[in-house]
């Protein structure tokens, strides 16, 4: 096939942790995912975006060998250090890979947790099954340590609790602790923060990114939220109609999208960035060219009160000749000490 514009051929190198080639997913006579190919390097964080039904989840599920009954994958999915293809691998082989070399975090944490088992034990089991810890006592101690790493207060007590005793955000932290337990080479996340309260989304996203960075794990991150991709990922791939249509560094794809679908997606989005003083800016329309942001800006999650508060404010600054405007105001709870907040004060928001 001729590669779609902006998609790199899936040529595996020694640094690649994952190499997907010619992946098709079919059901009956219907092709749902067609000729998808990509690689992910060790430690690389890659976003996968695209409209609903474009094939993102089926691509991720194929990588993990978890396609729903009746769907069939063909092509090749190779993982570094695993001597067989994951496409067509039987369940016994896949269960040795899953939870060890590849781990996953889905949208709804309850689907990943056993409601009748204390969470400390659920984490310990993953360590024992894959023989990462030699005995139950050290697995339990490691479980408490993992719960501390994902920011649960009083991790010793948390280990003794059942899933229903946690909030949604806390449950997703537990799922993350399980996913990271064996230092996977690849973490696959499918909308991991979408079901969470908006106030905890950024914190959980932070923990995911920190968790993979600390372990030098690679990450494949599915989301609808471009700002999340901009925060969490270095590279982004775009799916449309079951095919991968574009791929590249996040800033390049977001500033110079090549495929018509990506151009529409970016053009219709509001993105937000945070500058080095902890202030948040909403970029309306599209992202301005690289270098137009103040130094130290990082992308953050969507700002949903900017339009009515800021649209008429003089603090709106043009961010590029054809790319809309930004309005700075503080990120709730995370403004850097000493950050000036004129927009916020004028708007009477704290
Ligand atoms: N079990 C199934 N049987 C038949 N068709 C399916 C099945 N699961 C998914 N599909 C179809 O495959 C296509 C791709 O689905 P997929 O879930 O990968 O999309 P997606 O990009 O992840 O969408 P969303 O963002 O809404 O989760 C869709 O047309 C969907 O209806």
From TrEMBL:
Q: Which Pfam families match?
A: ABC_tran (PF00005), oligo_HPY (PF08352)
- What keywords were assigned to this record? ATP-binding, Cell membrane, Membrane, Nucleotide-binding, Transport
Q: What is its main location?
A: membrane
GO biological process terms, alphabetically, are:
peptide transport
- The lineage's top-level taxon is Bacteria
One MF term in the entry's GO annotations: ATP hydrolysis activity
Coiled coil stretches, renumbered = none
Topology with respect to the bilayer: Peripheral membrane protein
- Keyword Nucleus (UniProt): no
One Gene Ontology cellular component: plasma membrane
Provide the protein's localization.
Cell membrane
Where is each ABC transporter domain found? Answer: 18-266
**NCBIfam families the record matches:** oligo_HPY (TIGR01727)
Q: What does the sequence similarity comment in the record state about its family? A: Belongs to the ABC transporter superfamily.
Q: What is this protein called?
A: ABC transporter ATP-binding protein
């Amino acid at each position: 096939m001729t590669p779609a514009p902006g998609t790199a051929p899936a040529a595996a190198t020694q640094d690649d942790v994952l190499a997907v080639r010619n992946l098709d997913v079919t059901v009956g006579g219907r092709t749902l995912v067609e000729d998808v190919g990509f690689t992910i390097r060790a430690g690389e964080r890659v976003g996968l975006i695209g409209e609903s039904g474009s094939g993102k989840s089926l691509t991720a599920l194929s990588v993990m060998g978890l396609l729903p009954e009746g769907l069939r994958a063909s092509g090749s999915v190779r993982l570094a250090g695993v001597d067989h293809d994951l496409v067509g691998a039987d369940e016994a082989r896949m269960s040795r890979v899953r939870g060890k070399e590849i781990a996953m975090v889905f949208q709804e944490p309850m689907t990943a947790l056993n409601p009748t088992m204390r969470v400390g034990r659920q984490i310990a089991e993953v360590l024992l099954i894959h023989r990462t810890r030699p005995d139950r006592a050290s697995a339990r101690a490691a479980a408490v340590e993992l719960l501390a790493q994902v920011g649960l207060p009083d991790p010793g007590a948390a280990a003794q609790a059942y899933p229903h005793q946690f909030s949604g955000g806390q449950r997703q932290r537990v799922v993350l602790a399980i996913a990271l337990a064996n230092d996977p080479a690849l973490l696959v996340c499918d909308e991991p923060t979408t079901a969470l309260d908006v106030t905890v989304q950024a914190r959980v996203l932070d923990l995911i990114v920190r968790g993979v960075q600390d372990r030098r794990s690679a990450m494949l991150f599915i989301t609808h939220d471009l700002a999340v991709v901009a925060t969490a990922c270095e590279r982004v791939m775009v799916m449309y109609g079951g095919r991968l249509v574009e791929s590249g560094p996040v800033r390049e794809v977001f500033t110079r999208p090549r495929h018509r679908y990506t151009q529409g997606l970016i053009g219709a989005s509001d993105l937000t960035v945070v500058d080095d003083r902890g202030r948040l800016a909403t970029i309306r329309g599209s992202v301005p060219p690289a270098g137009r942001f103040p130094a130290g800006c990082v992308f953050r999650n969507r700002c949903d009160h900017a339009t009515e508060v800021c649209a008429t404010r003089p603090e709106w600054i043009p961010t590029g000749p054809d790319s809309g405007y930004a309005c700075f105001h503080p990120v709730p709870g995370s403004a850097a000490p000493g950050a000036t907040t004129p927009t916020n004060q004028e708007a009477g928001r704290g």
